[in-house]
Amino acid sequence: MTERLPISTEHCIVERDGHVVIVTMNRPEARNALSSSMLVGLADAWTYISDTPEVRVAILTGAEGTFCAGADLKAMGQQPSDPRVQERMGQIPNFHWKGLLREGQPTKPLICAIEGYAVAGGTELLVGTDLRVVAEGATLGLYEAKRGLFPMGGSAIRLPRQIGYANAMDILLTARSVTPQEALAMGLINKIVPDGQALAAARELADQIAACGPLAVQGILRTYRETQHLSEEDALKISDEIGWPVIGSEDAKEGSRAFKEKRPPVYHGK
Q: pLDDT tens for residues 171-210?
């Protein structure tokens, strides 16, 4: 049963259904452009996902057929009407960067489910996620250079590392729109689905991940993040430090038992 969590804000709905958290940017009248209320909700959602053992995977999406049209500088400069959000703005260090996934990414896999516009900050959010499901009619792009701005969410660094220099510079320097088909060919996204099906397809992926051993999944994600800029020799040392405890865990024993007994495993993250 889906439960709406109290960390939700006016512009960010956070719901949990079993092992899966669904985070919905909820400002459709402005194409879900970023606001302080939304960024606080996102930042609190990432913390909740990381800190809650029962949560194994999360999905980020947008309300009413749009993902996110980027920053709304006017709205981000206004004081939210909700006193709790005002308080959280002062309590969360760099809440805007954390909400935008520039820092403090969740320790569990994060899938984005994109419909409609995912441009500027919307694509920056995409680049901060781990798996990307995109509707065939969606529009991607980092428009900042076209407007004399800079992609402060980290895409100037992350994008070349994810899809290679030439493809990244094509997107960043031309500031043009990118189709889902181009994004798939570049390796920027995982899957294209019919319009209206992105969230359902993302949930299928989430359920597949949630069925795996949570220690194994989190260990794989952590290993990549901690070793991506190291030599293979140094990276393997960290991989061993993370991997051997997983191999010796109760979950690993349960996985072997379930395989022998021809049944689905029941993991507890221990």
A: 999 999 999 999 999 999 999 999 999 999 999 999 999 9
Active-site residue, 250 included: no
Assign residue 26 the CATH number of its domain.
3.90.226.10
**Measured distance CA(254)–CA(262) in Å, rounded:** 12
CA-CA distance, 199 to 27, in Å (whole number)? Answer: 17
Q: Are residues 168 and 229 in the same domain?
A: no
Domain boundary among 210, 232, 247: 210
Whether residue 94 contacts residue 54, with contact meaning beta carbons closer than 8 Å, is answered with no
Same domain assignment for residues 25 and 87: yes
Among 75-79, 160-164, 186-190, 229-233, the range scoring the smallest mean pLDDT is 75-79
Say yes or no to pLDDT of 115 above 80.
yes
> Which of the residues 64, 115, 144, 232 is marked catalytic?
144
Q: Which tokens hold the place of 134? A: 């995109």
Catalytic, 144? Answer: yes
223 secondary structure, DSSP code:
H
